[in-house]
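Q: What structure does this chain adopt?
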Amino acid sequence: MTATGLLSPQQVIEAGLAASKSDGCVVVVQSSTEANLRWANNTVTTNGVSRSLSWFVVAVVDGAAGTVAASASSAESVSAVRDVVAAAHQAATAAAASGRARDAQPLLEPGQGGPAQFFDDPAEPTSFEVFGELLPSLRTALHDARSGERILYGFARHEMTTTHLGSSTGLRLRWVQPTGLFELNAKSADLRRSAWSGVSTADFAGIDVDQAADVLADRLAWAGRTIDLPPGRYDTVLPPTAVADFMVYLAWSAGARSAHEGRSAFSAPGGGTTIGQRLTERNFTLFGDSTYPGLESSPFLVTAGSGDEVSVFDNGAPVGRCEVLTDGVISNLLHTRGSAAQFDEAFLPLADNLILTGGRQGRTTEDLVSGVRRGLLVTSQWYLRDVDPMTMLLTGLTRDGVFLIENGEIVGAVNNFRFNMSPLDVLRQTVDAGGTVPALSREWSDWFTRSAMPPLVVEDFNMSSVSKAQ
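A:
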């Protein structure tokens, strides 16, 4: 038993596997600690550290799988663990009545799974000390905001999640994942002007709140002049965070099964997929890589559910580098082992990170702005929603700062817009690209934080209507 009165992750796994009566069984335990720091109205409001434990069981019966998720209360005794395993077996038995799952595959054996850290080691925690470098700059930023008639809101969150995975085949894996988020929102004293920035970080090293606040102060100053613009197509500068919004959705939509079945933008007319077709003349490469420096992610797959891109039968499978786009050409689509076998293609899972390269290193968003004769700078987006999966068309809203560029200079803020753009067209219509840097997708940050993107200039970005959102 641990100090909290719970079974250790290893005890939960071994008790669960010992109790299983299924054809196969996978038990995954995720232990997390989270440090939080929040501020509003130029004052720190809350801080602290919380702990959680969650786990799930995948049971396999006659080629069908049943999954049951559990919380810490179900890890207090061996009998409680057995109850969850029995429920998973019952769910798999019910699923088997409808036949074998289309993604069914044998569970991975030892040696087939991804590389891992030491399974017998305990979970690794985070602590409030992770904010040690951030706190002095936060104090300075809050002081400067009060004297500068600005109001700062935001938060810093750091989570350390240790995953232990075990299967009835003897597979035993462990991975420790740090995840950090920093978001800052600055408003004018009358709350009429607003600007946002955010970044993903593994350890908060180098995060300077005062520096980020200075950037937002400049944007608030730009917004001192407001200009009404009609809807239309504008050359638009997207900073890395906005590019990430589009590219994450593209990667999530890159399932091979849906493409083969004619249900996606990667489906070819008349059948098959668009693999091998050139998407853009620019040498963009879009990929996930679990070993990418600074964005390292789990080297093995963990999932509690199956879909076109992932399968519970693949838990523990190696996750390496996956290129969806290579030098502007669609090079691969995501496969489970089941869909790979069905379509005679390679198994290819996506890492828990995403990188786009192909721009000119060292060139920043500001450099791209300086090259635009007339257009827009969109600093962030929100509420992206699917319109047409066959073209990957998305609609969304601009938020917290849209600025007019004239002759390479910001001349004021403009009204918000609703836009309609496909991530594929974002890449096709790019006329300039900067260097790839760590980025945080604002829209998808609750689910996906690790990305590196370049800023882009997108020609004829479709601002379809004016938004009344403030």
